[in-house]
Every structure is written in C-alpha cells, then in structure tokens.
C-alpha cells in the first residue's frame, strides 16, 4: 500500500506572510453568500476569497473545524420554551462536500463559539444552559446519529471566541474582551488579562497560530463592523491587523493548507478508463503533469498513484509529461470515482478525480403490474416491460429478464422470464387468503426496481357467523374501491379499525367490500360499530355512509340495505348500525360499506363487523314524505308530517303500526300514536332555540312476543328558526 499524503488540518505552516486563514463566513453587509472563504491575515488585505458556498454553511449557531471536517450549526427557527429547529452539517475539508446532517431541536446544542483540540480529538464550546439563564462550558460529540453535549462547568460570562493550541491549552475570550486560559478537564478559567477590544454579542471566532504562538481573532465589533486581531496569549495584548472590508462575520477560523508545495507536481488534468463491455477489469490512462504546482517547468521521474473509490489500486512511475496506461485493475460494477496523485521530492500533487460507470447497466424499473384470478384459482400476472437502463453501463435490451416472487409466502414463481405474462396456480382452502406478486427486471445480475401487483383473494369464502375485528392484515382480505379516484379512501389505522377520510373536492365515493361469505337461504343480521366527524367544530359537516349487499365486488349490483347521515360522534359515543337481509339462494355474498360523506366532513371509522343468522323482516318499512316546517306565526315550533308505511321490510302488507318515534338532535324522543294518525307539532322546550334536526326516525310494531321491532329510516330534515 502506497503512503498517501494526509489531507487533514496541518500542524505546521510557512512564514507569516504566506499564512492563509479560512473560515465559515455568514452572509455579510456586502451581500456575499455564506460559505467557506480564505484570506491572508498578514498581507494587509483582508478581502475574503470564496472557496465554496452552500445555504447550509450559514453558521448562525456556531461552527468548528476538526482535522478533516468543518461542522456548521444552522438554526432556522427559535420556538418557545427553548425549542428550536436546526441541523449540524459536516463538510469535508478541502473538497467541501457535505458528509451528513444531524438534526437538533434542543437550544442547549447551539454554541456561542467552539474550538477543537487535536490532541484529545474533542470539540469544546460555550453553550446555553437548559433554563436559558446562563452559560456552560462543555464538549460536543458529533460521532453518533444525534449530537450529544456534556457539561463540564457553569460559567458566569459567555465566551465569544475560543482557540486551542492542539496540545491541551485552550484560550477563551469572554463578552467583555478578557482573555482566559481554560482547563479542558474542569472548565476552570484563569484570567490572563483584558484585550482592550469590546466585542459585540454576535457570532465570531479565533484560531491559534502555531508558528507565531499567537491567537488570531476575527472579532465582530457590531452588526456592520469586524476586524482581525493578533492576541498574545501570555499578556492578552491585542494588535489590530486590519478591518474586514464588509464587516464579514466568521463562525469559525482555521489555518488553510495549500493544495501542494510550489515545486510539487501540478494536478493531472484528465484520465480515461478502458473497460470493455460489461467487464469490471480494465486499465486507466492519463498524462503525467509537465509543470509544477506554482507553474514552473517540471522534469525528472514522477511517482503516480491510481485510486478507485478511495483505495489505491495501482502505482508506478514515469517521466514528467509522459503518457501512462496502468496495469489491469478490477473495480466495482457501479459508479467508480477514479483519482490520480503524482509525487516528486517536493511532495504530492493535488488530487485529480473523475467518475465513470463501470460494468453492466441496471435495467429501468417496472412501474405497473396486474394480477387476476379465475374460477379455478389460477392467477395471471402481467406487467409493463422494462425499457432502457438507469445508468451508462453496458446494456442489451433483449437480454433483460424478470424474476417473479409471490407474497406473503415469498415463493419464487419464476426466474429468467422474458415474457411479460405468467400464470401461477394457487390452492384454495377454508377462509380467504390474499396474494400479490413482485416482478423484478434483471440484466447480467443487476436488478432494477420491482413492481408490486394488486392483491387477489383466494379461498372458499368465510362461513356464518362472520366477525371482523379489523386486526392485523384485515385490509388484504377486503376490496377497496376509490370510485372517484381522489386517493382518499378506506385504510387500516393499525389500531383495530377501518377508516376513511372525506375527499377534499367532491366528497367521498369509496367502497369497503368484505371477502366472499357463504350464505344459505335465510334471514341474516349485518351489524357494526361506527363513529366519526369532528365534534365541536361547526365548519365540519357530519360523515355519512350507506350499506350494500349482493354478490361479487361490483357495487352497482348491490342492494342498499341501510344508510346513516350526519355522523358527528366521538369514539366513546360510537353507535351500532344493523340491517336485516333475506337470502333466497345458496351462494357467496358480499357486504359493502359506502362512504358518501360530503367534502367538508372529516374521518369515518367502523369496527366490529358481524354477520349472524337470524332477525326479522316483519318490521315496518320506512316512512315516506317526511316534512318539517317552521311555524308560520314565528313561534318556536316545528310542524312535522309524514306518510306511514303500509308494508313491512319484506314487502308484505302491514296489519297495524303501534307508534312512530321521532328523535330530535339524538336527545329528545317524541311519540306519535298511530291511532290518531294526524299532523303533530313539536314545541321547543327552551327559548333561543335555533333549529331542529330530525334523525333516526323509526316506526314500531308489537310482535306476539311483545318485543319492540324497529326499522330505521334514511331521512333527515332540519328546520331553522329565528332566535
């Protein structure tokens, strides 16, 4: 393995006149964007030169440079109670590429200033305490997924700038401009003296210069003014080196390392990979530099190093300016970052990088697959053809094949298929089981994105009594139809319920249909619990549903057996829907719950669906011609009229009806004695009554067993009054 140059932060620099500082600069009065900038502190001109820029380099929550990264804390929102939203982004030193982002929601992770000690590999900083009433000196650990801060000591005055000599001595300048030495282990601060500089409370930074043994401090004096000072760490004397031309504000400072020594080779300017077809073994060619890094003529032999994704894969040497073709190397079947370094006695050249895709391409993914099942439980699966590749590798369209796997049992149905349709014979059993298939395109071992088919149900259906608690996996057995295509439909809430949300534009038109259930001739009761709406919010309307019954999953063939509207109920107030159906022929049947809520409704929930044998159809049919009108004289009364049913729910003639009940606002019940059979008026029990809503109206008869039989109707009327 060749020894390659360290690319970290240097511990030695040249003469002060050639010293270059760099830092994370916030946006300034001059309008320049945030980013990494450098400048020469002893040149007399502190105009920063941009090295890199990014919106994530706005270090308004502090910044620090380590051996190989610059970490920038950016805060975008300060909330109440110390809650904030922000993130700490790492950038690779020299390349300035993002190495990852760590989110923070704790204000105690925001630093007024930070520094790094290479001897301990720790970041030190000044942070707010949890009560936001003072400051703490401590460490910040960025090695884990979430930043971790450790308190070392509470401090009386915040630090505005810190610098470390990388040998365990840490210097801090406080808000009054006084210089301290700070113990990294205990946080105890020892006063050196006053710098005589009055810093503002804004972000600023400092760095220790190992050549001069002095501290360089980019002091922010006001919102529009900043200057660079050299501070003597033994006396605290501050010498002004100059003003920043636009009041530049630096969140961190570090000593900028030149890319190469002046007499080292310049960078290679290009390279060419030579890999035939799908092969991942090949060569790379490039020309060795003929000039030095400073631009002078280069002569003699140079050592060269070829890297692939950071690993050295070939080395050699040759005369400056000569053409090189490497020995064969083997790399990954993927995008590969090639890099070339050269070296002479003066040092290494800058690194030249170039990426290329090597090997076989990855086929384009499949976006659609469909599955259907016939009467013999044979599934037919078809899918869209994969067209083209997603990268620049070697590719032959005619050689793309497909792998098909059935789920949830993860059975491989086929591999290496070239057609886009296959069949899969399934076995049936009691109950119903849901299946779906994943189809993956493959080219020379490289897999594209799979497509997942719809689910199909296989089995002999369920028997009566049937009960659905809506526990795990229930939705795989049901058919969901988003009839209006608005993508708001029935879902599993993973808490033992089915729910749907009203469509935002045209309301709801969504069916939830049971799997096949075997019915013998007879009478059956369908029941489930329901609730929904948003109680307490008048801008939301109530939800509504109807229930259908029939054979198959085509709702147009269903018979409506019940309907409920104006549902505004908390879960604790849930109600039961029930309906009775008569089945004349043996077979499999299905129940459908149809959400028909208006667009300004909210969520509708159902639970505990049951189908049991029994019930009666000898109950009265619904009333007709329901009318409710306000009193013409302005009294707080409503006049109600209706036509009593003449048949029962089975279509047979009714002999008699005992009573008709009217429920007002789900609270007050009023009885109409059918012997009188006349229009009644309904008097409001209190002044200021603004309206009456008639719901859940039902008629009753007495059976021979003297049980009350009820038949709910689907009509609802609201009458408004002047208060």
Rounded mean pLDDT score: 84
Basic shape: flat
Task: Point out poorly predicted stretches.
Answer: 1-17, 675-723
**How far is it from the N-terminal to the C-terminal residue, by CA?**
92 Å
Relative strand content: over 45%
Major β-sheet, in short? 6 strands, antiparallel
Compute the gyration radius: what is it?
39 Å
- SS content category: mainly beta
Number of strands: 58
Helix content: under 10%
The total of helices stands at: 0
Please tell me about this protein's structure.
- With 723 residues, the protein is an all-beta fold.
- Helix content is 0%, strand content 50%.
- The chain is built from no helices and 58 strands.
- A hairpin with a 5-residue loop joins strand 56 and strand 57.
- The termini are far apart.
Keywords:
723 residues, mainly beta, 6-stranded antiparallel beta sheet, disordered N terminus, disordered C terminus
Give a quick rundown of the structure:
This protein is mostly beta strands and 723 residues long. It is 0% helix and 50% strand. The termini are far apart.
Topology (elements, then pairings):
Elements (H helix, E strand, L loop, with lengths): L20 E5 L9 E5 L9 E5 L9 E3 L3 E10 L4 E10 L5 E9 L4 E7 L4 E7 L6 E7 L6 E8 L3 E6 L5 E5 L3 E5 L6 E6 L10 E5 L4 E7 L5 E6 L6 E6 L6 E6 L15 E4 L6 E7 L13 E8 L2 E9 L3 E3 L3 E2 L4 E10 L2 E2 L3 E6 L11 E5 L4 E6 L17 E7 L3 E7 L3 E5 L5 E13 L2 E2 L3 E2 L3 E6 L4 E3 L10 E4 L8 E2 L5 E4 L8 E4 L3 E3 L2 E11 L10 E8 L8 E9 L7 E9 L3 E9 L7 E11 L10 E7 L6 E7 L15 E6 L3 E6 L6 E4 L7 E12 L5 E5 L4 E4 L3
Antiparallel strand pairs: 1-2, 1-20, 2-3, 4-5, 5-6, 6-7, 8-9, 9-10, 10-11, 12-13, 13-14, 14-15, 16-17, 17-18, 18-19, 21-22, 22-25, 22-26, 23-24, 23-27, 27-28, 27-29, 30-31, 31-34, 32-33, 32-35, 35-36, 35-37, 35-38, 39-50, 40-43, 41-42, 42-50, 43-49, 44-49, 45-48, 45-50, 46-47, 46-49, 51-52, ...
